[in-house]
Backbone:
């Protein structure tokens, strides 16, 4: 038969139960706190990684943009400098050929040398045309010299071509235009073929053909140039 508990016993049991419940609550609270701390740490680490990744991405993007900007700036400056150098070189070459063009009339002052030059220019045309009859056009003031040059050219042509003769006449109806510096034109095939051997034309050819050599002589070999004119 159970005995009724005294008030002290009841109080003791209540105290034990209260202590047990309190201990359970503390342990539960501690467990919840630990779990919350772990979740907070995980979330914090995740946020830190995300922010770090975002910062790294932005930095990398800005770094690349800065690098590209520097490359564009360097390339622009290099191109501007190159264009200035090329422009200066071209001006020098143009000035060089302009001076040469201005000196062309001087080549006609020495009558003996000029006659020899005209003879060679006529011969070049005779060999190129390889015809039996041609005409020569010259400046009016050069007619006397060119007539003598024609005769010596015919004789030399005959010797070189083993007796073959060619009829060469001075076309006085069609003189070289005003401003021509000298030289001759050799016309064949009834006027259809005109070999322009004037001094002005020969200088133009020289500008084109000798330009690479002149450029190299003045400025040196361009190591970046893969092809030669």
Residues:
């Amino acid at each position: 038969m159970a005995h009724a508990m005294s008030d002290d016993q009841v109080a003791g049991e209540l105290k034990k139960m209260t202590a047990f419940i309190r201990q359970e609550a503390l342990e539960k609270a501690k467990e919840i706190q630990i779990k919350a701390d772990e979740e907070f740490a995980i979330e914090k680490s995740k946020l830190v990684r995300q922010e770090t990744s975002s910062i790294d991405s932005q930095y990398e993007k800005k770094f690349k943009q800065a690098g590209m900007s520097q490359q564009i700036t360097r390339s622009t400056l290099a191109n501007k400098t190159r264009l200035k150098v090329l422009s200066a070189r071209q001006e020098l070459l143009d000035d060089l050929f302009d001076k040469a063009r201005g000196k062309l009339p001087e080549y006609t002052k020495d009558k003996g040398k000029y006659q020899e030059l005209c003879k060679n220019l006529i011969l070049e045309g005779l060999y190129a045309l390889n015809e039996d009859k041609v005409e020569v056009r010259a400046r009016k003031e050069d007619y006397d010299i060119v007539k003598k040059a024609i005769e010596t050219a015919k004789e030399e042509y005959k010797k070189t071509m083993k007796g073959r003769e060619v009829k060469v006449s001075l076309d006085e109806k069609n003189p070289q235009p005003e401003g021509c510096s000298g030289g001759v034109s050799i016309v064949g095939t009834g006027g259809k073929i005109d070999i322009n051997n004037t001094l002005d034309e020969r200088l133009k050819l020289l500008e084109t053909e000798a330009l690479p050599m002149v450029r190299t002589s003045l400025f040196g070999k361009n190591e970046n140039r893969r092809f030669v004119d």
Observations:
- The two ends are 129 Å apart (CA to CA).
- Residues 7-102 form the longest helix (96 residues).
- Strands lie at 133-137, 167-170, 183-188, 193-198.
- The longest strand covers residues 183-188.
